[in-house]
Prior knowledge:
Blueprint: H1 11-14, E1 22-26, E2 32-34, E3 49-53, H2 56-60, H3 64-74, H4 89-92, E4 111-113, H5 116-122, E5 126-130, H6 140-157, E6 163-168, H7 172-183, E7 188-195, H8 201-209, E8 213-217, H9 221-234, E9 238-239, H10 245-251, H11 253-261, E10 269-274, H12 279-293, E11 302-308, H13 313-319, H14 349-363, E12 368-373, H15 375-387, H16 394-408, E13 417-422, H17 430-438, H18 442-445, H19 476-493
Parallel strand pairs: 5-13, 6-7, 6-9, 7-8, 10-11, 10-13, 11-12
Antiparallel strand pairs: 1-2, 1-3, 4-5
Helix pairs in contact: 6-7, 6-10, 7-8, 10-12, 11-12, 12-14, 15-16
The structure holds pyridoxal-5'-phosphate and zinc ion.
Amino acid sequence: MKLDAFPEDVRPHLIPEPGGRMAYRCLGCHGVFSIQTLLYTCPDCGHVLMIEDQDVDRIRKVPGALWRRIFDFRKALKLPALSGIYRYHEFIGPVLPLEAVVYLGEGHTPVIRANALLEAEVGLPFFFKNDGQNPSASFKDRGMASALSYIHYLIQKGYADQVLAVCASTGDTSASAALYAAYLRPHVRCAVILPHQKVTPQQLSQPLGNGAVVFEIPGVFDDCMKIVERLTEKYTVALLNSKNAWRILGQESYSFEIAQAFDFDMEDKVVVLPIGNAGNITAVLSGFLKFFEAGILKALPKVIGVQSEHANPVYKYYLEPDPGKRRFEPVTVRPSVAQAAMIGNPVSMPRVIRLVDRFNAAAGKQATFFVEVTEQEIMDWQLLANRNGHIACTHGGESLAGLVRALERGIVKQKEIAVLDSTAHALKFSGFQDRYFSGSLAEEFHVLTRSDLVNTPMLIRPEGIALPEEGKPLQGKALELYVERLSDTIAKALNLKGTSPR
Length: 502
Ligand SMILES: *Cc1c(COP(=O)(O)O)cnc(C)c1O
Ligand SMILES: [Zn+2]
């Protein structure tokens, strides 16, 4: 749609001008720091940071109802810079000029209703939001688009050049970082640090294909994180983990999109997501709060964080009902099919603690919940979801298993509508499906194969007739015989009835 075709009250707001006053805010000492340099922790006290806009009046001047119209009409604009997460520019990165925006097709992932069979099995209506349909096939692209747009802005302004971006990863952060960094060649180079044999072959191929320097080290993600933390302290590198608060800002788009998908009505809605390093749940809580405080939403949804019992520090923290007695203890992780969430010491824990309090206070009741699921439940629900037409990864299965647990525990009611985060594409984690089918997940994962969920290919290779060989297709009578024999064998296997002669 051309600019002059939009309604007059919306037109001045359609294409945002840079504005706002963004600053880092320390969650420990509450100090405020300029965003002119990249910070990851507070220079005074070492705590994690969030980025806040100190010019909220600018946001409040526009009534909630008008914001809703602005976002809906922005859908009809064709500007690449506003086609992804920056549809919500004023809430994600208001200081960034649109020329700085790096857009690779992230965001606005489909929200897919579960079919009647699956809903009947689960017990309430729900949708998957398929964040595996982002460019590098996980939700991490939302945060990376934000972090790299900001770095791009620093480069354009002359505040930075020849940036070496680094991250530790359980597989998806590195895939995303490598992709976005590659787009900003030659100004940005990327190095990623992965736990050896703890990312899937598909995830490993991604940063290799995008030309990042890939290091594999012994240990788990938490060890990789320690190493990049020391690298950022001792050397001039840009950290792309979610400790970088710009990542959080971009991931808030997930909440904004859910809000918009339901016409900004979050009454009786439940958002369910897996927790690893806790960056995503931080962003989801923060995003909904921003829209609520701006008057765009009249109600907040329930938010349910799910953890596997093999990596459950956040769940354990909230097991203690008395806030005064809660103590955070990192856990030693065990192998998990939700491998990208296999984290024992989540970097964003202080952010979660603070946001959970703010969220519940704003909702006027408990609106955040944490549940734990078994590895078995994660696999079974993932496979069952995909049997019903989804593309859920194991973490999507974890979300679904978490919803089932929440329903059992009475956290969720049958009249509510749930939106589940399938955080990556099923294909990235297909190795777990293979191992489930072949029964080889038993020892470390404690997952037993349910035979009704197994599916394996059938090889049909008849004896006694000519078969096609490489470069030598069959012809004439031999081809006829081959087609007849194979199709009859398949028909028999499928129990097909013959067509009646005409
Ligand atoms: C990173 C990741 C998670 C965990 O998200 P956090 O922000 O670390 O809590 C879950 N699922 C997938 C597929 C991921 O890549
Ligand atoms: Zn501080």
